[in-house]
Amino acid sequence: MINQASQPDTVLAWMDALADATRLRLLRLLERHELGVADLCQTLQMPQSTVSRHLKLLLDGGWLTHRRAGTASLYRMLLDELDDPARQLWIIAREQIAQTAQYKQDQLRLFETLRQRRERDRDAQQFFAGAASDWDNRRTELYGQSFVNVAMLSLLPDAWTVADLGCGTGPMLVDMAPHVAHVIGIDQSDAMLQAASKRIESSSLTNIELHRGDMEALPLPDDHCDAAMMTLALSYVTDPAAALSEMCRVIKPNGRAIITDLLRHDRDDFRRQMNQACNGFDIDELTDLLVTAGFTLQTCRPLPPEKNAKGPALLLAVATKK
């Protein structure tokens, strides 16, 4: 808001703002419309540098406000927030330019600018209306899927140490390593660890370490990790309670545990084919195991089966160490 005219300098500042024809034209446009720099450049037929310079002066003087809209800034006049003397001064200036040829030209070009903007908005709506039914497939075809995982992994605190218990061939180790301080992979299979080692070598990542170890006796000290995960690993363990107790032991207080595994099923042929120790877990069963191990449960829920997945449905459990 412009301050009350308690000093001559204030009045002179108001008059100086309105003493330039370009600024008067800008204010006349922005009195009725919220416009971006590109809209104003097109309407006034002026370069961006000129328009931006005058907008800054009007912003600094309290005549305008602006807000972000995506990558653009939209400007409008603060007419209702002006003090009465400033408002009266603007009304006088506005009346003087309202009938000029320049003002009428501005209005014609503004009308066309707004029409083009509405047309662009309509085209965008029509595009997405037609693309919505096949958008997921189109996006995957054009951009792949890895950017989704990268975006989500970037939410991890960059100072964390994260353990992947039952890391297998190490795809999650390589995915997580660029986003955290340290990653630890543990698996009981020498063949899996060899494959993981080759994957890590080809990635040139230097903050990953591998250990051979059983889930029921992890080769890590107490309170060593900020978070740990088991992905399709717990169903291979003969003593899940012991494995979850070990998982809790190596996580710091308030650290996080994430478990993804099979929802309880009756496909014994599948269990034998995959050499798993059990047919997955019920929600209540895994919840009790986590609480007994020393965790506070955040969620334990089934995951929607993916369209082309042939195995049993999965569940996700998230918990924190007490």
Mean pLDDT: 89
Q: List the secondary-structure elements in sequence, H or E.
A: HHEHHEEHHHHEHEHEEHEHHEE
Give the CATH architecture of the largest domain: 3-Layer(aba) Sandwich
Radius of gyration: 32 Å
Task: Give the class from helix and strand content and strand pairing.
Answer: alpha/beta
DSSP summary: helix tally: 13
Helix content: 40-55%
Largest sheet entry: 7 strands, mixed
Strand content: 15-25%
As an assembly, this protein is single chain
Strand order of the largest sheet: 6-5-4-7-8-10-9
Q: Provide the domain count.
A: 2
Provide the CATH superfamily of the largest domain.
Vaccinia Virus protein VP39
Uncertain parts: 1-6
CATH topology label of the largest domain? Rossmann fold
Give me the count of strands.
10
Q: What is the CATH class of the largest domain? A: Alpha Beta
Instruction: Indicate the overall shape.
Output: elongated
Distance between the termini: 52 Å
Which properties best describe this structure?
seven-stranded mixed β-sheet, elongated, 13 helices, single chain, 2 domains, 322 residues, 10 strands, disordered N terminus, Rossmann fold, alpha/beta, Arc Repressor Mutant, subunit A
Q: Can you put this structure into words, describing what you see?
A:
The protein has 322 residues and is α/β, with parallel strands linked by helices. It folds into two domains: 125 residues, Winged helix-like DNA-binding domain superfamily/Winged helix DNA-binding domain (Arc Repressor Mutant, subunit A, Orthogonal Bundle), CATH 1.10.10.10; 178 residues, Vaccinia Virus protein VP39 (Rossmann fold). The chain has 13 helices and ten strands. The strands form two sheets. Strands 6-5-4-7-8-10-9 form a seven-stranded mixed sheet, with helices on both faces. The chain has a three-stranded antiparallel sheet with strand order 1-3-2. The N terminus is likely disordered.
